[in-house]
Amino acid sequence: MATIAGIHHVTAVCDTAGQNIAFYADLLGLRLVKRTVNFDAPDSYHLYYGDELGRPGTLMTFFAWPDTPHGRLGTGQVESIALGVPPDSLEYWADRLANRKIDAETVERFDERLLRFHGPDALRLELAETEIDAEPWEGGSADPEHAIGGLYGVTLALEGYERTADLLGAMGYDAVGEEDDRFRYVASDEPGSILDVRCRPGLRRGRIGVGSVHHVAFRAADSAIQREWRETLVGRGLDVTPVLDRTYFESIYFREPGGVLFEIATDGPGFTIDEPETSLGEELRLPDWLEPRRAEIERDLPMIFYR
Q1: Which of 191, 192, 174 is closest to 183 using CA atoms?
Q2: CATH number for the segment(s) 7-300
Q3: How is 238-277 classified by DSSP, letter by letter?
Q4: Positions in the chain short of pLDDT 70
Q5: What are the angstrom distances between the C-alpha of 104 and each of 8, 68, 124, 273?
Q6: Are 207 and 119 a contacting pair, CB within 8 Å?
Q7: Comparing C-alpha atoms, which of 167, 149, 145, 183 is closest to residue 60?
Q8: Integer Rg of the chain from CA
């Protein structure tokens, strides 16, 4: 069976859509490739950011849940999200963040340099210098020489790591290093291929809310491979959802042994299925089954202010 190529997208929870767009599109220079709603709760926005086309491995997405309590960082959660930038780019980004009065610090991990900071709602973010080949969106606000090319990876905080490590091995991840309480796994040489697991048994259980990660989605090349994975995961004793139509990809969801919500999403059909490439993210898009409710949904959604 085909292994997992890496992360498809990471979905987090934010407060207001406007503040989110101002940070991820205007400051970080990612392209807002889709402005839609949470298909399971269409009274809230679902925003997608990525490269020019929102290719798998470049995507960050957000559920906008205004007035929702902040999450609590702990075990059973994604601790931080890392985005990839070209070598010798951290000074550029440190200055760019400082100009917005955002504190950042440079750290080293596995002989790599990273810039660590907080996004809106205190979401933990990192920029990692990487040689992984990725093409940033040329229309973004950042200098193309230093622009974000996509995801680099995520860090999971878990009470114990052994059962999760066994699952990652089955998914095609290779264990490549250990540093203090951190264990590194790599899926491929594509964007979004790094997954770090921190073993933190003394940390309390995390809680989902604003400023926390909701789930991590992994890549399946097509629906046939995704269905094979569903059978495999069920065979390992995991509770897996039926295949769900997300318009831009199909999804299955399950909780890995440490409690983090995982998704396996197909690479296609992609974000140009309902919008031309030149105008991605400019209008509110709804799936076919929600179109009859468009007037009601648009009435209930908050206005977006961000400039």
Answers
A1: 174
A2: 3.10.180.10
A3: ---PPPEE-SSSEEEEEE-TTS-EEEEEES-S-GGGSS-G
A4: 306-307
A5: 26, 26, 11, 38
A6: no
A7: 149
A8: 18
